[in-house]
Design a protein that fits this description.
The complex is a heterodimer of chains A (405) and B (471). Chain A has 405 residues and is of the alpha+beta class. Chain A is 47% helix and 7% strand. Chain A has three domains: 188 residues, no CATH class; 59 residues, no CATH class; 113 residues, Cytochrome c-like domain (Cytochrome Bc1 Complex, Chain D, domain 2, Orthogonal Bundle), CATH 1.10.760.10. At the A-B interface, helix 2, strand 2, helix 3, helix 4 and helix 5 of A face helix 1, helix 2, helix 5, helix 6 and helix 7 of B.
Chain lengths: 405, 471
Amino acid sequence: MIKKLIDKLNEINKFDRNADNGERSKKLFGLAALYETPNEIIEAAAVVAGKGYEKFDVYTPYPLHGMDDAMGMDKPKVGYVSFIFGLTGMCLALLMIGWMSGIDYPNIIGGKPFFSLPPSIPITFEGTILLTGIATVLGMLVLFNKLPKIDSPLNDTDFMRNVSSDKYGIVIQTDDDLFTEQDVKNLYLSTGAYNVQEIFYRESNLTTKTPLFDKKFISAIIGTAVVTAVVTYFIVNFVLYSTVPFDWMWVQPRIDSQSPSTFFPNNSGMREPVNGTVARGFLPYEYKGLPDSSVKLLANPLAVSKEVLERGQDRFNIYCSPCHGYFGEGDGRLKGLFPKPPTLHSKKVKEWTDGNIYHVITNGQNVMPSYAEQVSRDDRWAIIHYIRALERSKDASEQDVELAK
Amino acid sequence: MSLDATYTRELPLVENNATLKDLDNIIALPTETKPTKGWWIAISISSTALLIGAISLFYTIYYGIGMWGNNQPVGWAFGIINFVFWIGIGHAGTLISAILFLFRQKWRTGIARFAEAMTIFAVMTAGIFPIIHTGRPWLGGYLLPLPNQNGVWVNFMSPLLWDVFAVSTYFTISFLFWGIGLIPDLAILRDKTTSKIKKNIYKVLSLGWTNSNRNWSNYERAYLILAGISTPLVLSVHTIVSFDFAVSVIPGWHTTIFPPYFVAGAIFSGFGMVSTVLIIVRKVFNMEHIITIGHLEKMNKILLATGTMVGFAYSMEFFVAWYSGNTFESFTFVNRAFGPYAWAYWIMFSCNVFFPQLFWFRKIRRSIPITFILVILVNVGMWFERFVIIVTSLHRDFLPSSWAMFTPTLTDMGLLLGSFGFFFTLLFLFLKTLPLVSISEVKAVVEGAQPTVHPHPHTNGKAIQEGGDGH
């Protein structure tokens, strides 16, 4: 049974390669000649070109060196296509990177500018190559060689079987202005052709135009594309949302905050640090909650410098000025929403050590809350330098004015 | 004293005075006949390996990459080793088809098609690994700069992204290169076959190629341009792969020698693989006259050169580790050569540097059994090179408290085996379905294939002088 089927299939599949299949019309496409050696064909081509024929071509199993010259052909122009598309690829890649990482979603990565050239070079290079390659191949095949040309009148002929194997052929087409059957035949024989044959158009060459622009063909392509897209969309959605193991990144074996865990005895998902754990850079404040008389020994570790003062001013304006005012006079911008603080130019504050002010910032004082969370240790000391500068500026001496000049 | 003129003469590229028709018949034979017993045995072995790989792949995807031996601090292991290994294998194909083409090395015609096919299959094999290494391969689309619901784009400053672009460009261009090389050969098969189904398939695939000289002219120019762009491309691919390592700050990875070192290694390993397979293939398909011992010898010379370059890179790394005065760097290298993974290091060093030195001897270069053993060693050595670079640099990082050893799991091994299975299955299918030597290119270099006269268009045998001398 199966054997019979295979035999039957083989029967259908068999085909006589020497028979000229494809319906041929009566209309002549051209006259073809076959030659035995490369030297004969190249001479023949030079003669044919010299006689002024234009619609002719030479057919060889592999490219022959010097044939382009013999046929009087121009240099191939594929390179222009490659060049133009190479430039396009380069610009597109650069624009893509520039727009995506510099404009549409700017993101600081490694402290580099949003768009920076050096890391963009690899992708720009690959984009250039990619477009050059695709354009070269498509340009060569479609634009210059007019392929695909599956039903070319030459294909399936005895002539083609010879030139694709080991013979060298030439064809002068009937639509050449100089074409007359007798002249061409004589020309072939005089240049040493061992075989001359007629090549007819196929029926299909004469009837249909370009099959690519056939309405049925185009609608079939569009139809398939739409169906495939829709089906893929639904399948991908189904697969990604509802089947194991195809899940999204947010599906993780982890405990979310505020959620219980059966893993720990107390069912709490959150782990607390061991008693006495100290985070880096967060040493506990040793005078926490103590009266300010006990902090006399705390000295300002920062030396005064332009940078420190500027940093202090910056932090003071952000964290202290809303209540204390830009110059520490207690005239903040809260307009009575919070008790007014006393001025920082009072004799009391002026006579305080830096440690006292530090204590107020770190520990808070009466209604003023602690700013230890918001302002780092060094920044607190910088603020204090700035407060001292403010105080001095309020009643500057003659010498200070001289110094400022 | 007179120069011996025959001394510099190239030996014929195709031996035994084969005619053009003979070439058609010999090269097309595997595509026209039923597979032999040897082929069936070969493909059953490779598809068994492929099946094992498929099972391991299923485990990896279903349970996640926890199935692999990767740990902290060895976060990259077999997955990346295999990726770099296979990408490297591919480089020989492009070198043979593009770089040797630009250097007008005619001997490349005998092996170019096969090597290009190898490139394509190797890149396909390599591509699997980074995708599954993401853990959720079905979300692989996020590797590309595609618009998405989060409104973010990929990170253009990451070498891993450059890799995505480099590898996909490399695959596309290699495929195009290989594809246009096949067109004329498919036309030959089209005109030779006696099967209706095959005839129609070849007809479509050859795009109706007519061997016309006006087509050949554009074709050759396009081929030249593709060779021209493939050359910097192939260098860029392994350079970018090496950036995956060199741009990080891990001692042992963070070195400027990586790009040239990786490229040389890639070519070395690729030639190793080409030789390994060709030695078998030329025997099995009776192509010893087309893929001659001369071809193998030339490849052995390239192996010797690149192997020595790789050896130089190994020594240079050591020198720089010491000369930089960086303790972390020198620790990594001492640890490589004398630490717990010293065995891997010395396998790498001997297979890649010591043994290929035997190719200095002409006798050994031209001995097929010895070449076969040496090229197998090269394959082993180059796999271990990637193992050494990746695992030994990671397993003892900056914090001694987190040092660990890496042990591959069964799934790791299965995937490694499977990658060979995938590669060889594709290769065997290729050998049976398409001409494994470029017929039209080999025809063009047969003795007497090129015309000895170069006329210009002329009437009655007289050249029309067109500015030139009508040479």
